[in-house]
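haha ok so turns out i had the wrong file open the whole time. this is the CORRECT one, sorry everyone. sequence first:
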Amino acid sequence: MEQQAVWAIAIFLIIYALIISEKIHRTIVAMIGGVLMVAFGIVDQTEALHHIDFNTLGLLVGMMIIVSITADTGLFKYIAVWAAKKSKGNPVSILVTLSLITAVGSAFLDNVTTVLLMVPVTFSITRQLNVPPMPFLLTQILASNIGGTATLIGDPPNIMIGSKVEELTFMAFINNLTPVVVVIMAVLLPIFVLLFRKKIGTTPEAKQRIMDMDEKALIQDRSLLIKSLAVLGLTILGFFLHQALHLESATVALAGAFLLLLVTGEHKMEEAFSKVEWPTIFFFVGLFVLVSGLIETGVIAELAAKAIELTDGDVVATSLLILWLSAIASAFLDNIPFVATMIPMIQEMGNMGVSNLEPLWWSLALGACLGGNGSLIGASANLIVAGMSGKEGHPIKFVQFLKYGFPLMLLTVAIAHVYVYVRYLM
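then structure:
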């Protein structure tokens, strides 16, 4: 192995270990890793820029701007309180309803944004009911990662896969992943009820407090609400039509974001920009450059060759290996860097003669997104909920989450295994 490849592997492994350790913020670590790849001459600056996936970054920034402005209207608080009242203040019904809202929201807003909006409302409702918030938070984490699996824009791994593979359009993700997500949610909701119903009993007085809440008072700006919903609707329509319009998904998201800024006035611009998760954006930039070092030195090609050797290039064996490997790895590593490494590896398999890559892409998406439920560090949404919960005096412990998350993750991946086999491999 040539010296450049050895340096690339060494830098990658050290940076990956530091990301997992969480001793230093992952964005700082990833950016330093990217800089080292350029500084050591493993990739030059032009090559590094070429490997940064601006479609992924543009899609994330655009959706973050749209959602941050829409959140200012109070819409998401309104939906949660309205749903709690429709559930007649019954904690079990509220748990199921909020899980469903989180799953649907995660499919169209992305899972990180959805939990940021749902957690404060959940605490408000559980305080009124005088019940522990933990069952509600755990089910929402699981629902956010499952719901995010359903669409191109729901979870960062899907955004990354969709950006790199031209034929995997917004509609392709819905057609291929939404059916299995619906089945998984249908299986999990009764399990949520069985697991938590005895822990969230409440009194008639507490239920009445929920019924007395005025959801209409939560809508703070009706004019902004109308503008936000119109633009959000147009943007989602744009995602459905983006292939027919010959537009990338990032173009649709950014067009929606700046149209909303145009109709709401420039006074919203600085506030919206301040709510973009810039650390996440730069984390992606660092990762793309970090992985480019492994691509340019041939390390990824070598790994792909070994994987094909292991499965004899058999599409069935390769798909199911990717599904389970992605799920187990994503449970204990952040799924974003893992997927960033896997994408070029699957592309290389195509160059080496694996004819049908489609099952491999869907296996990667399902494994990485569903695997995020395996542990507290498996996905960004998990860590965000844990952080917000800790500030409220209800810390979510790693082992506590593992007890529920890991077995349920294995169940969901087993369902995905059957789905992938029956739909693509029989």
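The two ends are 39 Å apart (CA to CA).
again sry for the mixup
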